[in-house]
Histidine biosynthesis bifunctional protein HisIE (Belliella marina), 202 residues
Amino acid sequence: MNKLKIDFEKVDGLVPAVIQDADSNVVLMLGYMNQEALDITLDTKKVTFFSRTKNRLWTKGETSGNFLNVVSLTVDCDNDTVLVKARPVGPVCHTGDDTCFSEENRSKTFFIDELRAIIKDRKNNPTDKSYTTSLFAKGINKVAQKVGEEAVEIVIEAKDDNKELFMGEAADLLYHYLVLLEAKGYELDEVMDVLIDRHQKK
C-alpha cells in the first residue's frame, strides 16, 4: 500500500476516496484525501479524510467510534481516485444508516450466521415443534446420514436443468451440513480457517 502513486497536483491537492466494504463489496461512502490524510490512513490503518467544509483532517469514527478499518488501497487508472476497502465498525453514515447512500450493507450470505445461531439455540433450548431439535435428539449418526442423503440428492438434481429443484436440494444440504457441524461441536469459522490456510500455502 505504500507504493501508491497518486497525482495530487492534477486535482488541486485532493482526490476522491471511494470506501467499499471489504467483505460485502457494498460502497459505503465517498470522501476526499490529501497527501497527509492518505499518509495517516496508511500509518494508522483507519480511514482519514480531509474535510472540505471544515478545512481540516478528520478520521472517520473519531467522535462516534464507528471507524473504518483499512484492508487495502488501490488507485484508479488515471492516478486521481483512491479505492479503499475497509471493514466498518458500526453504521457508516451519521444518520445511522449502514451507508451514506441509504443502502443496507448486508450480503445474503451473512444469513448463514443467523441460521447458525438458530441451530445452536435449537440444540441448547430444545422444543418439540422444531425439526432441528428432532435431528439433534436422534443423534450424530442420523444427522450425518441426512447430510449424506442430501448430498446424493443434489448430485442427482445437478444432472438435470431444473434450477428450482437444484436450489432446493442445495439449501437442504447446506442446512444439514450446518446442523452436523453443531452436532459435532465445531464452528464454521474453523472450516474457513482450513480453507484460508490451504489458500495461503498455494
The CA atoms of residues 111 and 162 lie 25 Å apart. The radius of gyration is 23 Å. Residues 163-184 form the longest helix (22 residues). The first strand starts at residue 15 and ends at 21.
